[in-house]
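User: Hi! I have a protein structure encoded as tokens and I'd like to know what sequence might fold into it. I'm fairly new to this, so please keep things simple.
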């Protein structure tokens, strides 16, 4: 059996189950419920009543992967103490895109998107590849990734202009593969500079180099036309 895909709490077990179905927009036959807490009255009416807690499991083989992912991402965020809502989800270019909305978007994004990237990685690990049919899950919040892409393109072109003018190479901040690819692509057709990734691990740094120094590097022209393996990373 799959791990549970959603956890809800309410005043009663039936209310918690109803909340689950309403949140995921599903019917009763789509899910099986496990009662974690049935909801207990406070001691002698003095202490607060404990809420009922239920966990939902997939019951239908035809349940779309998007519904499973929806439940898992909201449950993860609730356990982080963050209230968020899935406002959009769909298949784009063979990937499952999830758009979130939250009053705590800054916390979810983290420094340069590090928290968002970590959550995205966790989702891809938790949701079996067979369920998502090999598609990668892309997590976004309030169009952060689009805004980040535009910012990186501007940064790359600005620094490339400086490198072309001074002849001195510049090393950018550590970036994940997706962000490095944005820089590489933005400057791929620039005849005055070329780019290289330096470092180890996931967060490497992009160096922007003047074409005047191309003799110091191998296969510069080839790299202009055929990007390295980094371009193939999702």
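Assistant: Happy to help. Inverse folding works backwards from shape to sequence: for each of the 234 positions I chose a residue that suits the local structure. Here it is:
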């Amino acid at each position: 059996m799959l791990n549970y895909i959603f956890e809800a709490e309410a005043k009663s077990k039936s209310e918690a189950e109803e909340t689950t179905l309403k949140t995921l927009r599903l019917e009763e036959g789509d899910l099986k419920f496990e009662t974690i807490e049935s909801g207990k009255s406070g001691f002698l009416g003095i202490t607060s009543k404990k809420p009922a807690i239920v966990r939902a499991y997939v019951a239908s083989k035809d349940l779309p992967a998007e519904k499973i992912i929806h439940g898992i991402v909201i449950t993860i965020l609730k356990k982080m103490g963050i209230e968020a809502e899935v406002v959009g989800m769909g298949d784009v270019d063979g990937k499952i895109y999830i758009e979130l909305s939250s009053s705590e978007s800054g916390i979810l994004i983290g420094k340069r998107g590090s928290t968002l990237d970590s959550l995205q990685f966790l989702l891809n690990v938790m949701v079996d590849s067979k369920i998502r049919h090999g598609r990668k899950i892309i997590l976004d919040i309030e169009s952060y990734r689009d805004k980040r892409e535009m910012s990186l393109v501007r940064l790359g072109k600005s620094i490339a202009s400086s490198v072309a003018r001074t002849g001195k190479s510049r090393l950018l901040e550590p970036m994940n593969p997706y962000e490095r690819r944005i820089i590489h692509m933005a400057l791929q057709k620039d005849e005055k500079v070329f780019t290289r990734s330096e470092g180890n691990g996931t967060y490497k740094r992009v160096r922007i180099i003047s074409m005047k120094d191309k003799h110091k590097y191998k296969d510069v022209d080839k790299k202009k036309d055929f990007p390295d393996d980094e371009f193939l990373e999702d």
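A useful reference point when you look it over: The chain is about 35% helix and 25% strand. Feel free to ask if any position seems puzzling.
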